[in-house]
Predict the structure.
Amino acid sequence: MRSRQAFTRYAWAFLAFNVLVIVWGALVRATGSGAGCGAHWPLCNGEWIPVHPQFHTIIELTHRVMSGLALAGVIVLWLWSLRSYPKGSWVRKAAAASLVLTLSEALIGAGLVLLRLVAQNASSWRAAYLSVHLTNTFLLLASLSATAAWSQAAPAQWIQSSKTRVAYALGLAGFLVVGVSGGIAALGDTLFPSTSLRGGIARDFSSSSHFLIRLRVIHPLLAAGIGLYLGALAIHGLSARRPVVRGLASALAAIIVCQWGIGLWNLTWLAPIPLQLVHLAAADALWIILVLYSLTVLTTETSPARGPSPSS
C-alpha cells in the first residue's frame, strides 16, 4: 500500500511536470526558438552542450532537457506500475499508453527540427504537423491523468448507456478540435502579429491574408460553441449523487468560464507571450479536469485498486 500511495503521488507530480514541459514548448514557439539548435537532433548545433549558447539556443536546449527528463520519468512510471499493480490492471494499461505517447511525442518533436518546421516557417505542412503534435500532447495528458486517477481508484464497472458514452466522447473530441485550432491561432499570432485589435480583425477576414491569419477567427468561435457544450455536461453533473462527480463538474464549469475570460483578454491584448502561456496552461488544466470528469461519470462506481503486487 505504501508503494501504491507513493506511486500515486509520483503520478500526479509527473503529470504536473508534463504540463510545465508543454508550456515551455509553447515558449519555444512563441519566441521563435525552435531553430535555436539548428537542424540538429539530438545534438544542439552539432554539440551535446553548446559552449556559448545564444538566447534562442538556451530556450530550445532547456526544452530538450525537460523532454529528456519526461522520457526518463515515464519509463519509471511504467516500470513502477508493473511492480505495484497486477497484470491486466487499468493502471498498467494507462502507464503503458503514456510511455508510447511520450515516445511518439519525442519523435514528433525531433521531426519538427529535422524537417525545419520551426522559427518563421509558415507553410501548411507546419500547420498540419502542429495539429498532429497537439493531438498527441493532449492524448498524453489524458493517459497520465488516467494513470494517476486509477492508481487511487480503479474503475469497477463501465456504464452501459450508449447515449452518455457518445455525449462525453463528443465533448472530448470537441475539446481536441478547439485545442488544435488554438495552437494554429497561436502560430498565426506568432508569425503574423497584429499591431491593433481593429487591424487584426480586418486581416482575419481579408481574402488576401495568409491562411494562418484567416484561420485565427475559427478558434474563438469553436471555443464558445464547444465551451457551451462542455458547460452543459458540467451542469448535468452538478446534480449527481456522487460527491466526486459534483466536485469535478463544479471545477469544469469554473475553469470554462475562466478560460473564456483569459481568451478574451488574450485577444484584446493582442496575444502577448506571457498571456499565451497562461492561456495554454489553463487549457491543459481544463483538459485534465474534463478527462477526469468523463472517466468518473462513465464508471458506475470506483473501487480501490486492489490485487496482489507482482513483487509480493
